[in-house]
Amino acid sequence: STMPRDSSLPALAARLTPRAPQQGQQPPSATLRGQQPPSATLPTLPLLGSLLLAACITSLPMFRGPRWLKSIFARAARSMKRVPAWHFTPLAGTNLVIGAVPTADEQLRELQDDGVTAVVTMNQVWEPQAPGGVQAACGRVGLAHLQLPTPDYSSPSQRDIRRAVDFIGAHVDEGGKVYVHCNAGRGR
Length: 188
Known about the structure:
The chain is α/β, with parallel strands linked by helices. It has a single domain (44-181), classed as Protein tyrosine phosphatase superfamily (Protein-Tyrosine Phosphatase, Chain A). The protein is built from 6 helices and 5 strands, in the order H-H-H-E-E-H-E-H-E-H-E. It has helices at residues 9-16, 44-59, 67-79, 105-113, 134-141, 158-173, and strands spanning 88-90, 96-99, 116-121, 144-147, 177-181. It has a 5-stranded mixed β-sheet, with helices on both faces. It is globular. It starts with 8 loop residues before the first helix and ends in a 7-residue tail after the last strand. InterPro entries: Prot-tyrosine_phosphatase-like (IPR029021), Tyr_Pase_dom (IPR000387). This is Tyrosine specific protein phosphatases domain-containing protein. It holds the Pfam family Tc-R-P. Residues 1-40 are annotated as: Disordered.
C-alpha cells in the first residue's frame, strides 16, 4: 500500500526543491532565451513598496466584502492599466515558474521547452488571455491546467490555496515544473 502524501505547506516546499541530476545528466535549463534568469530573491525595496501599496489598497472599504464586489473593483482598476508584455521567471531552487498571463500557444510551448508540465491560472475568466482561454490553450499544447479565479488585488480563498498545493505537489512529485500566473505576474 502507498503512504498518503503529506500535503502541508512545509512538505510542498520540500517537494518543490529540485532533486540533484543523476550522474551523466545535465541540470534542467534555468535560462530564458539564453540569458540568466532574474534572481528568485526579488529586490527588497520594490517588493516592500508593492506589499505596502497592496495593504493600503486592500484596507480601503471598497476592497472588503464579497468576491463579486471585489471583482467589480478589479475590472475598474484593470480598465485603467495597460496590458504588460508577456514574461516569466523561474524561481531559483524550486520547480516553480511565475509570470504574466500567456496570450498565445507559442508562449506555452516556450514554457514547455523550459520543463513546465502544468499551469495554474489565477485570472478570472473575463480577463485577457490566450484565444479560447488559458485552459483551452493548455489543452492544445499538452499542459495540465488548474483555474483558480481570483479578483485582482485579492488573495485566493483557503479552498483554492489547498487545491493549488495539491495540484502543484502532484506535478512536482512527477518531476515537472509548474507555471503560476495572474495578469501581470505581480499580484494575487
